[in-house]
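Researcher: We're teaching a course module on how sequence relates to structure. For the next exercise, students receive a sequence and then see the predicted structure as tokens, so they can try to spot secondary structure elements on their own. Here is the exercise chain.
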Amino acid sequence: MDIPKFHETFIPILKVLEAGETLQAREMYQKVINQFYSELPKEKLEQKTKSGDILIINRIAWGKSYLKKGGYIEFPKRGYVKITEKGKKQTSSNLTLNQVENSENFLEFYNEENPKDESTPTKIRNASPQDLIDEGFNLIDVQVKDELLEKLKSIDPFYFEKVILILLKKMGYGDFIETSKTGDGGIDGIINEDKLGLDKIYIQAKRYGENKVREKDIRNFIGAMSGDTQKGVFVTTSSFDTGAIKKANDAHHTIILINGLKLVDLMHQYNVGIQIKAVYEVKELDNDFFEGE
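Model: And here is the predicted structure for the students to work with:
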């Protein structure tokens, strides 16, 4: 018996969750191991990845991630998992990687994540080792961004505003000023674009779940800017409806709209709210070393 591939953990995960109870992720990992992989030798159960994770838990965690994107399980709150009605219908039969990747929920997730990319992250056939490395990094990046967006939607709204100001500071803009928590007229922060504060950028940050930013929100934002500045950034964890986009585009002010997907892209790029877990070295032959033969 060998350590399961991540897609081989799909049914074990669903079986552990099929009673419908909400389990802490770590508890779920252990139940899967106890019920389905307890006969593995100790050295295999303790085997680690190059980054130091327990390999079998890493595989189950990836299985959990794919099942969530496929709509078979859900994360009712941070760190917890629960089976969905779709998942309950699947526990009595096999579930392949191909089925999960081609499920409607899965395709919707990746089409939204990569709207210009016609391909979904399916298994690469006849791929070079470099292709596999690149695809692996891409999948990890998508997973981290997904978790980051879920986290942003759950944090305190006032702290979310501060996160946005920290991000803009990391991007190279000037010092920021947090506005008061009440009576701020729709402005959550002010960025001084230059050292003397002659040019200002007003910031509005809306931490929404599924609700879209509407035209009214943009109109109020423009009104709150008054004559003090012509530049504004409106950030949300969700998205903007067509009316909001049109209002921003038609405004005499310069209004930059940042939706949830763009936001996590920027946070990932500038390492805000994330950390580097591991660095891998890829080595190749140094032909210059042997030129003196």
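Model: If you want an answer key for the exercise: Confidence is low (pLDDT under 50) at residues 116-121. The longest helix spans residues 129-154.
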